[in-house]
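Thought: the user wants the 3D structure for the chain below. I'll pass the sequence to the structure tool as-is, report back what it returns, then summarize two notable features.
Action: structure_tool
Action Input:
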Amino acid sequence: MNEIASIPIDALLQTHPYAKEFFLSLGLKDVAGHLTAKELVSELTDEFVEDCGLDRTQMLQHFTVFIRKMSDLKTAPQKQVHSLSIIGGRNKSGEQEKIALTFRPGDIVCVVGPTGSGKSRLLADIECLAQKDTPTGRQILINGSVPDNEKRFSIEHKLVAQLSQNMNFVVDLTVAEFMAMHAESRMIREAEETIQRIIACANELAGEPFDMATPVTQLSGGQSRALMIADTAFLSPLPVVVIDEIENAGIDRGKALDLLVQEEKIVIMSTHDPILALMGGRRVVIGNGGIKAVIETNDQERESLKELQRIDARMVALRNRIRSGGMIDFDMKAYFASLFA
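Observation:
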């Protein structure tokens, strides 16, 4: 502890720029760089220290652990995920799922089934890398092997990113500040360029634009989800992404999937949308809490997808017309019939 805490803060920031995040977490925005962490803590008022809920010794201990953990994260080699496998468990009736599935980077897998059938439970099993210790008894393997406990329970070593239906921010930051904080925590070298790319991409997905000065608490649900999808694609090293009903996000779902696949993610999503379902290479059909079937998307379905996308483009045009205050006072039959003329 003495070694790190005895280095002048300005010098420490040269090699450990994320150290300032620790000070910010304590509410210390302007730190005298010529001081060491030990000297800084000794100069804090007793009232300030008490408000932090730590004594001075604990502050220095937490600071040292933070620096070492972040250093380990920076230097630790990322284990590449070549495959994720699901070993079947049981449905709500206790019947065995006699199935084993394997997914690889670039795969889009759709989970389909009625509301309440167990789609979200499957996504949760994947997210926590279940080892026969969830209600379904399923087991998740990484690269054909049981993952280490640190992959399951350690935040810094997790493998699965989860994008839920509802994503609301509570931090009082602008988009730029929030993304900068995330980029710094990931130790991205060209952070500013990456942040601009993320925001441009998020605006393309969301439709309704926002800028870097927008407070994240003022983002709509669609804008929030678009921002986190772009963030997951460009900033997150996590190789697996699970998405719960992206069609409810109010974003360009096709572009969102294309973006994640381009970044070589394994994408597993629950959906009721036929277009999204056919964009996946496989559909996992859920019923009564269990995997009932796995359907490979065939050539005829891919042709059907093209037709559905043409219809959807017309629906998007109508939706945008309504949003902009326009009227839909023309012949609907002719509007759609022209697609099949």
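Final Answer: Structure generated. Strands lie at 84-87, 100-103, 108-112, 139-142, 160-163, 240-244, 266-270, 282-287, 290-296. Residues 82 and 230 are 22 Å apart (CA to CA).
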